[in-house]
């Protein structure tokens, strides 16, 4: 396997396309469930490999399926809603994907066509921003806000707001759009830990809470380096990759790839490449597609699924390491 060649990863793009339905939605696996965040992540993988038409088709599904309030539901299957919750970080991610697509293909008409949906999405998300800056994680089936916030979710939303701001500026609309909201959510992430996990057990045991504030650009410089180093041994298993949950003997491909992106952001390329090499061991030897994760205590891949978004995470990590496209430094 030539890790530094874009052609090496083309089969992963073909797999993602095999998971795409006629309406443009990208399922986890062929004929499986769909959620808006992972759908966008898969489209971003297609961007890197040059599958522009399939990626545009994915965004057409977002336009067509957006609710009047700007949101999307949390889960769909076979063109039906299977989870009526509306999650803010799922809704916001359209902006991250759109900006990534534009940086790869420089198609301004794509941004112009998508902007009304992006703006509606951001309006929905920012309805959930509290006076403390955090953004409530979801609306329930009754369309009522669920009164708690997620550190990982807010970090992802921060990135999406920055991308929406970039899009607005690129289209000659409002300069510094969402400036105040970006500052507020950044302050909450950095300085108000009490705003997160107020009504459930702390999610600090999840690796995403560890690296997402770095990955999304809220925590930078020496502080970012310190954050990664302090919890490295909690989450990273030598020769295997990054755990999803601190106490579970389970490394996962997507979390490992996102850690690669975070490490590249703080210029830890040697560590990033080591983790990425570990990820490659999570590929099925027959198909070379990536399992979600590996339970090293039992020496078993689990769950028995090969998600499209995991393939996309591998593509994005490879691009950040080996510089296939102009958007290789996106994160």
Description of the structure:
A 3-stranded antiparallel β-sheet has the order 3-4-5. A 3-stranded antiparallel β-sheet has the order 8-9-10. Helix 6 packs parallel to helix 8 (207-215) and helix 11 (253-265) runs antiparallel to helix 12. The chain has one domain: Glycosyltransferase (Alpha/alpha barrel). It has 331 residues and is mostly helical. The chain has helices at 10-18, 36-48, 52-65, 88-105, 108-127, 151-170, 179-191, 207-215, 221-230, 232-235, 253-265, 269-279, 308-322; strands at 75-77, 80-83, 86-87, 138-139, 145-146, 236-237, 241-242, 250-252, 293-295, 300-301. Helices cover 51% and strands 8% of the residues.
Q: Keywords, please?
A:
10 strands; 3-stranded antiparallel beta sheet; globular; 51% helix; Glycosyltransferase; 331 residues; mainly alpha
């Amino acid at each position: 396997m030539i890790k530094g060649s874009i052609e090496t990863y083309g089969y992963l793009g073909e797999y993602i396309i095999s998971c795409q339905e006629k309406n443009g939605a990208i399922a986890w696996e062929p004929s499986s469930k769909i959620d808006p965040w992972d759908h966008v992540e898969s489209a971003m993988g297609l961007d890197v490999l040059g599958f522009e038409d399939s990626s545009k088709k994915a965004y057409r599904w977002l336009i067509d399926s957006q609710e009047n309030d700007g949101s999307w539901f949390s889960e769909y299957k076979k063109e039906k809603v299977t989870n009526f919750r509306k999650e803010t970080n799922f809704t916001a991610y359209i902006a991250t994907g759109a900006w990534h697509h534009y940086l790869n293909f420089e198609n301004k008409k794509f941004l112009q066509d998508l902007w009304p949906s992006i703006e509606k999405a951001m309006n929905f998300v920012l309805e959930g921003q509290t006076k403390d800056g955090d953004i409530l994680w979801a609306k329930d089936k009754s369309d009522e806000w669920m009164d708690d916030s997620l550190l990982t979710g807010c970090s992802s939303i921060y990135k999406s707001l920055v991308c929406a701001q970039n899009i607005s500026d690129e289209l000659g609309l409002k300069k510094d759009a969402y400036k105040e909201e970006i500052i507020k959510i950044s302050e909450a992430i950095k300085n108000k830990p009490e705003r997160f996990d107020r009504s459930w057990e702390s999610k600090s045991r999840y690796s995403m809470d560890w690296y997402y504030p770095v990955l999304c650009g809220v925590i930078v410089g020496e502080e970012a380096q310190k954050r990664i180093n302090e919890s490295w041994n909690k989450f990273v298993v030598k020769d295997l990759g990054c755990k999803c949950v601190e106490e579970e003997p389970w490394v996962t491909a997507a979390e490992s790839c996102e850690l690669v992106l975070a490490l590249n952001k703080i210029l830890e390329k040697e560590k990033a490449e080591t983790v990425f090499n570990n990820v490659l061991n999570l590929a099925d030897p027959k198909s070379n597609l990536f399992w979600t994760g590996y339970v090293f205590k039992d020496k078993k891949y689990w769950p028995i699924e090969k998600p499209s978004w995991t393939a996309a995470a591998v593509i994005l990590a490879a691009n950040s390491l080996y510089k296939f496209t102009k958007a290789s430094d996106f994160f």
